[in-house]
Amino acid sequence: MIIIKKNRNKLKKPQKLSNIEDRKEEVRIFDDNMTQFTHQLQANINIINEYLGENVDLACRYIDINTIPITRAAIIFIRSIADTQKLEATVIEPLAHNILQSLKKDSYDDYSKTADAVKDLVTNSEVEGIFDVNTSIDALLKGNGILFIDDNPIAFKIGIVKESEKKYADAKTERVIMGPQEAFVEDIEAFVEDINENTFMLRKKINSPHFIVKEIIIGRHSKTKVRIAYLDNLVKSSIVDEVFFRLEKIDVDGIMGSSSVSEYISDSPASLFPTIFSTERPDRIQAMLLEGRVAIISDGSPIALVVPCVAGDFFSTPEDYYLNFYFTSFNRLLGYIGAIFVMFAPSIYIAFTTYHQELLPTSLALTISGTRLGVPYPAFLEALLMEISFEALREAGTRLPIHAGQAVSIVGALIIGQSAVEAGLVSPTVIIVVAFTAIFSLAMPFNNFSMALRLTRFLNMTLAAILGIYGIMTGALIILLTLLSLRAFGTPFMLPFSPLNLQDLKDWVLRFPQWAITKRSSYFSINPQKKADNLKPTPSDEGMKK
Amino acid sequence: MKKKLILLTMLFIVVFTTSCWSRREIEDLGFVMGLGVSKTEDGFYRVVAQLANPNYIVAESPEPTSIYTIMKAEGLTVFDALRNLSKIGKRRLYIAHLSTIVIHEDVAKEGLRKIMSLFVQDMELRLASNILISRVPPEEIFDTPNRIAATPAVALEIIADNYGANSKIYVSDLLKAVDAASNPSMNYVTALVEKLSPPTKNEFPQLILSKIAVFKNDKLAGYLDHEDGQAYNLITNNFQIGLIVFETKDGSDKIVIEVLNSEAKITPKFINNQVHFDVKLEVEGSIAERMPLHLKYYQIDFNEIQEQFDIVLKDKLKRAFFIAQQHYKIDYFNFYKYFYREYPKEFKDMMDNWNNVFSNAKINIEINSKIEHTALNKNRGRI
Q1: Among A138, A437, A517, A540, which residue's Cβ finds the most Cβ atoms within 10 Å?
Q2: How far is it, in rounded angstroms, from Cα A71 to Cα A66?
Q3: pLDDT, tens only, B25-34
Q4: Domain Spore germination GerAC-like C-terminal, which positions (chain B) (predicted)?
């Protein structure tokens, strides 16, 4: 028997949020009166469309059931999280081929007959009648299908949830020790349209009617699918509009992966520093979507873009939220110190040894002087030589297969590290400086950002060789002004620092405990409160405290 | 656009026409660690520079004599002599890391003002180098190899930094010397360096900072021995953790007090045209050693020792003031600062004659000592 739930209570409606009324941004608010389905099939479909119609992967299939007269029916499902094969086999096929008696109701309230008939026909293991709109939306977002039959105000929930097989790739470039290991797979839709693995992964993580996935096609010949995902009650609509405006402007033969999309939509296309965040980890995208940002996933690329992004994002590793917050805060500070080190360490070495020997402690000055004795090149050339050979080594190590890569590191360590010093071509001090710079740059969580920092190092070295510390300060000013002038989709790039926002520093510079970070940055989101304020765990009563 | 281009070109030219001005590679520099100033019989100034040999310093076990070289040149002034050093085939001199300046007694007697001009003018130099007075030619002081792998100039700096362990000497730096040279009321004080003969056959000769050299303004006037050196440091608040040794009243024990904390407060008074100074000394210490002179142990009476300690300190200070007022007639404690702050108008009249005024000043000493505890350990060595 089918148990028909006559759950007429108002379920969790998308709440109207009081603290955003004074803002210009408008949040989509759902009609409170639409809690019940109607007798018209099309009206029912429209109700669902009201909630989820914006999504590209919402699908609706009309079926004519062989009754006399013919009964129209429709099944609605979300393509990326529903198992369409199951749908075809267990719902469409039996409904379309079997001959059935009339499904028209006999009396106004007697739906059980219809339900029984559907149950008899549909061979799916899970069929459940739902009267309530919210319950059916929740069911849809879980991956179920919703079957409407004309003249029946019932939604039949059909269990066609796509099973999550373990078929995503392990994260390769953003590895963590503790925490989820999954990563985006190569195709968001591998030729067959309904395998939407990447959308599936995101949909699995965010089950909200506010979660919108839209699609546009880019490329005259490649016709690449690019999907834009966001939560419409958190994101600033101006940012979403801007993303669409910029994506629609792209008129090219074809695009290769997300990174080439990012070059077309970047705010400062000529800037050294990336202003668009790219990641392969769904958990990270989930977190950023929940901060009110927009994710862009393109077909054929395992990398998703997230806009807007700020400098602070590049210092947080995917692992930050799986580890103890003291340790994570230390790691973040290490990252910031490392960034300064990467940019300035070799140039400080050059400036100190060729201009400002008085700034070195006496014993260090004597040691450097002693070890540099017999080195044929000036300090600048020496450091430049070593930095360039390190960059070449790094590049060789990435390009070569793993086994050959080891050979490169042996060559690097032995030949450059040891022999060059023994031959008196470079001093050991410069090797140490270069090694420290390399370690810090490799310890930075994001390669594209640390690459930008590494390039600034050469500018600083040149300036230091010409002007000493004055040159380093000039270089620092140039870098700082560049960073400060960057904007990412209307958001200042140096966000937690300039404009200074103490709330944001909690999660961008240090990592406060989860219960203490209760606000999103108001720069992306129209709804800053993301958690309750009193989440700090305390015993419930006096008895527990003893 | 054109404007931008012109600006950019100008910037480019400004930056790149400096052509690495004042660039010098660190390995080309001769690091001068010590500088000595003396006078020849003909009246020329003689400058001795002690250079560090960096390549031997980084060597694994350098010869004590190989880590430095000494250069000597003469000239009409100190700077002239220093420039004459460049005629000698060595590295280019670099005096920013100068740690010790040794000045010969004869030059110091003539006055530091004459030779300070170079040190004031030269921007390369930090004013933190220590100044020491020597009775022997500075080159002899600098040519004292040691086994601690430090150039003699640096070894002298190490001794100077650790003066607080005994608090019997006081070393002052170039900044104070420049100050004294330009301030006629200030009397300079620093340490005397001497060379000891080697303690054993196989050892090298050794350097010692033996006495405090006191100056009348910038001219060397004489020396203070250990006792007065301690008193000097107590009065001028430079006393660190030195030891004060005395015998108990009945002569049964020798007590050593290690001073933990000392503070002297000087209050000037001007009554009936007579300058008075109230010196209030507060000393905290602990009993660090007890040497029984007879074979008999008894309970230490704290109050008694404290009273005794008060008397010892008072005698020390009295003696120090007596020497300053009666023997040297110089205010090398630089009490003029306190007086000037309280009575700036009156000081103006006495300024030229201050040392005499100080010599006739009445000094009232008040000691307030406190012995915190015995640092003596009874149980060590017992089960």
Answers
A1: A437
A2: 7
A3: 888 888 999 9
A4: 211-374
